[in-house]
Design a protein that fits this description.
- Helix 7 crosses helix 8.
- The protein is globular.
- Strand 7, helix 9 (205-211) and strand 8 form a beta-alpha-beta unit.
- It has helices at 20-35, 50-60, 67-82, 85-91, 98-106, 121-130, 151-166, 182-191, 205-211, 223-233; strands spanning 6-10, 17-18, 93-94, 111-120, 143-145, 175-179, 195-198, 215-217.
- The protein has two domains: 6-19 and 93-233, Rossmann fold (3-Layer(aba) Sandwich); 20-90.
- The strands form two sheets. The chain has a six-stranded parallel sheet, sandwiched between helices. Strands 2-3 form a two-stranded antiparallel sheet.
- By secondary structure, the protein is of the alpha/beta class.
- This is HAD family hydrolase.
- Keywords: Hydrolase.
- It comes from Actinomadura rubrisoli.
- GO terms for molecular function: phosphoglycolate phosphatase activity.
- Pfam families: HAD.
Amino acid sequence: MSTLNRLVLWNIDHTLVDVGRITRDAYAEAFQRTVGRPLLRLAPTPGRTESEIIFETLAFNDVVTTDDHLHAFMAALAEAFATRRADLRAHGRVLAGAREAVEALSHVPGVVQSVLTGSVRPNAVLKVTELGLAPHLDLDSGGYENGVYSKAALLELARTRAGERHGTGYPESATVYIADSPRDVQAARIAGSPMIAVATGSATEAELRSAGAGRVLATLADTHAVVSAVAELTRL
């Protein structure tokens, strides 16, 4: 790969890691604390921001929502995750090839890696830290759910943060988003950045191609394929 300034943004859940059990438990606790009764149904999570999941979950459970619900639920969710560090290590897992792909890209001159996620920052940082992926990720450059911006807007925000932190520009064409859902593909397309879609979530390879992903991989297991895709999609 030639030396260019490139920004690689990773989605976390179902792209790098699987922490589904911990996520469900944390949402159940946050719902109980916020609403005062048990959670019966959790909204679908792939490609969504935390606020989207929260509002739909509240609706599914017949809760009349107000703006106060979002702030309270997010705070409770962050606390619920924080108490589950040991569970993340015991029951969470890094998906096949993810660790190797992140490490390989960390050795490519000019590449900065961070995250673009629908999770609030404390939860996102906890996931990648407890599962050993944080050392190669510039987490201060990431895009995180804040209750305001869409994922496409968060991608733009991450580009700006990375540019300010590293003293260089990361145009749309030099920023690659790696994720696993059609919603993530749509976010990358709106933001004008190339996309590597990985069929490690609920979407099939065909669904990811149909959504418009620039490259589709079955998994991250082929490290060379991941690094090559980043190079090809950002060849200026």
